[in-house]
Design a protein that fits this description.
The complex is a heterodimer of chains A (231) and B (346). With 231 residues, chain A is mainly alpha-helical. Chain A is 48% helix and 10% strand. In chain A, helix 5 packs antiparallel against helix 7. In chain B, 38% of the residues lie in helices and 12% in strands. Classes of the chains: A mainly alpha (231), B alpha/beta (346).
Chain lengths: 231, 346
């Protein structure tokens, strides 16, 4: 029989696309019930008016993640306390898609474009984090431009960076250059500093938003006593 | 005016509201939105220091006396700028309209600056209305919500030709300060509703207008920064940045400030409390005391001097709105310069 840990583990692969963190770490998963081959998950967000497009992505991704767990054949994921809860829950659980859930309210194509924008931002921010660590270890910006993936010492930061490269369909072979832009174009040595300066701002923005959302979630659902479901 | 360590700060609050979100003002059938909206604001409210929390009932509707005391007696504010938020789809008389604000602005003309709004989707009629309102109130600024729904439309862009006609009208009437809400949004169904890029085009096409991006494009600060650095007439409206982060997330606040100082510069940043979401008193006090925390991660951000804080807390906004600053509160040298600061990458 499916157990909590397996399902939560699957849910921890679901990220808030904008905040680039797992929904389980953010405290967005408030309830999890398993009955036979069916799983029920309840999600909550920092405000009643959180962007419905991102909310939709998380609910849909959570459902898909749960269904990917061996032995699970039925999944219901519901979002609570949101102005568009009904549309989102109906849309996801009946597999209508975002545009189907909000007829006449969005401009096609569906949400993939938005997801791509944030995958690119996440890639940029993760790359900067890794490069900051490498610079601190004594590499020069020019050396970074020449570094290949196979020469980077293993670390969690590096792992995360590779995951983001995979999501964008970029080369992760050991010979591939470390420093590329989101389109896979190599960053030349004399542009590294500027490239990383831009990247840092992207990282601060993502991090700052995550903090803001954590703060709002805490004011909405209380600090400490209602932590959400944890691994 | 705020005074600390012998320094005097002229304080202009760049973004205040006099709202009515009481249940009596909710439109039948729309109650969940009206209630949800003010509860959402209340969540933000609680990111400030606890001793400033209000009970919900007071937060829904506060009195003239409360507002006057909070801003001008306790909050060090010399002049406050009203920015309206209509939301007439949920609130009978609107959430916070020009007409509501005018009650106070006309009673205390030396304390408040009144602003209005437009929505290019209102067409010819809207243009006439803007002119009529301007004749009646004589404002110098408007607040725009590009993500707002309207008769089946799910938002608009400053790049739209209709928007250009309105901006031309603003220029003609002397409405030179265009406050654009690019921040936590109301109905962000349109995928691009957060995107501040349309401000870029408008700022280039209308070099005589100032574009104040309210909430600095949160949650897309980076898009805002990269744009603002190229446009001399784009300003950073700091409401929410101080209120939501300075107390509750001080290290992140410092990083965001560092980024803004780097890309936008202290001459183009404008403080605002977003009253009554947050009280101005603690924001002014804490900001004057603010410096980067310990840690190398802050090393290469530009430093902010007392002079820079004076600009952000009031002198920059005073320049945009032509507010007379008492001689003793001006900066020692000549006029500050509104030129854009070219960021340099070290």
């Amino acid at each position: 029989m499916t157990n909590h840990t397996e399902v939560l583990d699957a849910l921890s692969d679901v990220r808030d696309p904008e905040l680039d963190e797992p929904i389980t770490d953010l405290g967005f998963v408030s309830e999890l019930e398993i009955e036979g081959d069916g799983v029920f998950v309840r999600l909550r967000l920092p405000t009643y008016f959180c962007a419905p497009n991102f909310a939709y992505l998380m609910v849909a991704d959570a459902r898909e993640a749960v269904l990917s767990v061996p032995g699970v054949t039925r999944a219901w994921v519901v979002l609570d306390d949101h102005y568009a809860s009904d549309e989102i829950n109906g849309g996801v659980n009946e597999e209508k898609g975002f545009d189907g859930a909000f007829p006449d309210e969005t401009e096609s194509p569906d949400l993939e474009e938005l997801r791509t924008i944030f995958r690119r931002k996440s890639f940029v921010a993760r790359q900067e984090k890794l490069c900051r660590a490498l610079l601190a270890q004594g590499r020069s910006p020019e050396q970074l431009a020449e570094t290949r993936l196979g020469e980077v010492p293993p670390s969690e930061t590096f792992e995360k960076y590779l995951e983001r490269r995979v999501e964008l369909g970029l080369d992760i072979s050991p010979e591939a250059p470390l420093l590329v832009d989101p389109d896979g174009k190599r960053v030349p040595g004399d542009a590294v500093v500027q490239h990383l300066r831009f990247a840092r701002t992207v990282g601060v923005s993502i991090e700052g938003n995550a903090e803001l959302c954590r703060g709002l979630l805490a004011t909405r659902y209380g600090r400490g006593e209602k932590e959400g479901v944890k691994l | 005016m705020y005074e600390k360590d012998g320094e005097k700060y002229f304080v202009v609050d760049g973004h205040v509201h006099y709202w009515d979100a009481s249940p009596e003002n909710w439109i039948e059938g729309q109650e969940q939105y009206a209630k949800g909206w003010i509860e959402c604001f209340y969540g933000y409210h609680q990111l400030g220091p606890e001793e400033y929390y209000w009970p919900m009932e007071k937060y829904q509707k506060y009195s003239e006396e409360t507002m006057m005391k909070d801003l001008f007696e306790d909050g060090y504010v010399d002049v406050a700028i009203f920015l309206p938020t209509y939301l007439k789809a949920w609130y009978r008389e609107g959430f916070n309209t020009t007409e509501q604000d005018a009650v106070l602005a006309e009673k205390y003309p030396d304390k408040f600056i009144l602003n209005s709004r437009f929505d290019p989707r209102d067409g010819e009629e809207g243009l006439e209305e803007l002119e009529r309102k301007h004749r009646r109130y004589g404002f110098k600024g408007v607040k725009l919500y590009t993500a707002e729904w309207h008769n089946g439309s799910k938002g608009w862009s400053l790049k739209d030709p209709e928007a250009s006609r309105y901006l031309e009208k603003c220029e003609e009437l002397g409405i030179i300060n265009i406050h654009v809400h690019k921040g936590p949004t109301i109905w962000p169904l349109n995928k691009d509703a957060f995107d501040p890029k349309d401000v870029d085009d408008a700022a280039t096409s209308f070099p005589n207008l100032n574009f104040i991006v309210e909430h600095v494009g949160l949650p897309r600060i980076e898009d805002f920064c990269f744009m603002a650095t190229q446009e001399p007439n784009v300003y950073a409206g700091l409401s929410v940045v101080l209120g939501a982060l300075m107390h509750s997330r001080p290290r992140f606040f410092s990083k965001v400030m560092g980024e803004l100082l780097f890309w936008v510069g202290e001459d183009k940043m404008i403080w605002a409390s977003d009253y009554a979401i947050w009280h101005p008193k603690w924001q002014v006090e804490m900001f004057v005391d603010w410096d980067y925390p310990q840690g190398h991660e802050f090393d290469d951000f530009p430093r902010l001097s007392t002079e820079g804080k004076k600009k952000i807390l009031g002198l920059n906004a005073a320049r945009l709105y032509d507010i007379e600053v008492p001689p003793a509160l001006r900066l020692p040298e000549a006029e500050t310069d509104a030129q854009s600061v070219e960021p340099t990458v070290s």
